[in-house]
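Lab channel / #folding
Pinned by the channel admin:
"Please post every new chain as: sequence first, then the structure tokens as a reply. Keep commentary short and put observations after the output so the thread stays searchable."

First post following the new format, from NK:
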Amino acid sequence: MKIAVSGKGGVGKTTFASFLIRALADQGIKVLAIDADPDANLAQALGVTDLSGIVPISQMKALIEERTEAKVGSMGSFFKINPKVDDLPESLSVKVDGIKLMVLGGVKKGGGGCICPESTLLKNIVRHIVLARNEAVILDMEAGLEHLGRGTAMAVDRLVVVVEPGRRSIETAQQIRILADDIGLKKLSLVGNKIRSDKDKEFLLSHMPGFDFLGFIPFNPSIIEADLEGRPPFETTPDGLTLAREMILKLSSD
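Reply from TO:
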């Protein structure tokens, strides 16, 4: 099962990804968690307390130059478009309670020189993980789906977009569907998050006709408390894990 999770910043995308990851791992499934959001915080959501040893791959200048044979920041240079990456999921992942986690990071745009080597390495890592790895993969993506190329996207089992009751969240989800369609990612579902009442649920259903909803997650202040205490959300909100398990069953049966 290869699932990409996306959505507008602040909707609870990473929290939902952590529920999915933990639910799969609790079933004894090998899980590779990929933080592909430039605003990386999946490690914290999975319970990592010491972040000092986690360096995003996009910031590993020596590795990028070694694998792509290009000088990072140079203009107009030639570089490998298919660098070796098959060893990186093992060598660059950290273990978190039986889960392997890789933090890709983001590529700076504008004024940063040539960004092609960094972007190329990250996209090749994602391609290898989605196409060649024999394990469950959960990708915590930014809304722009930057690391997914066409061939990779078509191999993803499902793109899950997290939305909250609000017009900006809905607009972002609609834009993500357009981006997904452009790269051939046809299997898209929504998860309603921060649902306070039936009215919130009906708001999403009425404003997003034609979208497949996997389920709805109630608003729970315990998730905020977990963040303040530096704890993973699934420790304070077990109901979220239960809902994630139900969604995994639905995804598996589709």
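NK: The mean pLDDT is 90.
TO: also worth noting, The two ends are 12 Å apart (CA to CA).
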